[in-house]
Amino acid sequence: MATPRSHNPHFFKVLMQGFQQNLVIPPAFANEQKELMMSKHEKEIAFLRTRKINGDNLWKVEVSRRRDDDEWCFDGDNWSEFVEHHDMKYGEFLVFEHTGDLIFNVFIYDYTFCEKGLPRTRPRPHAHTRRSHKHGSRAVDDDLQSRSNRNKKPPMPTCLPCFTATMTASNLVFSIPYLNIPTVFANSNNLRESAGSIITLRVRDVKKVKGWPVKLQTFSGDRMCLREGWSEFVVSNQLKLGDVCLMELDQTARMEQERIILNVRISRNATSS
């Protein structure tokens, strides 16, 4: 499966209480997708594609409109089966890449902050085709083919390495706030050889892309963190306790420009003041 593309719309969700039954699509994302904005139905059909599992990696799930708040969410029996099949757990997170016509590439990350491995159990055959739907009763392969013919794109390399960080007091209010970098992420991307150098944290807002220089440092022997410049990033982006930052390593900049850039996506904690 392809890596997320910069020109395809994305969103990510941390799995919180109740994710086994449904997962809300961020309203800001849903409101930009014509398939949902122009829908006159209470339910639509989406296709979720994960990395291949014995050739059976495509899931047909319902997307339902909540009448009380006009939000859209993945739900229904097939969503619950998708969650169970991929052994998803509270606190893990998903990155959704919308390739068009409600077809999503889904990338799953676990507590190591790296992409989750394939399930150890064998997939249940045709779990995603058990039920027909009033908006489409054709076989999944035929239905997907008719959509994907309109959205063909060349293959891409493997998934971008990334990790998430939930903001705590040490990240925000210490005299010298800092951000720990997971050891597995630092080791797998050879960040130790760049210790002491300045890297860039890059955030894309509605109008433009902004960057902040931050120093990559080591501490306590072999651990790594972002320290000098991190406080400016926190203040500029108004980070609060419980906010989640998804950090993606820009591999193109690393290979072609010999620069380290982390593209940052921020998920706000709805309960923070």
Automatic annotation (TrEMBL):
Pfam families: B3. Residues 122-155 are annotated as: Disordered. SUPFAM superfamilies: DNA-binding pseudobarrel domain. Keywords: DNA-binding, Nucleus, Repeat, Transcription, Transcription regulation. It comes from the Eukaryota. GO terms for cellular component: nucleus. PROSITE patterns: B3. GO terms for molecular function: DNA binding. It is found in: Nucleus. This is TF-B3 domain-containing protein. It comes from Papaver somniferum. The lineage of its organism: Eukaryota, Viridiplantae, Streptophyta, Embryophyta, Tracheophyta.
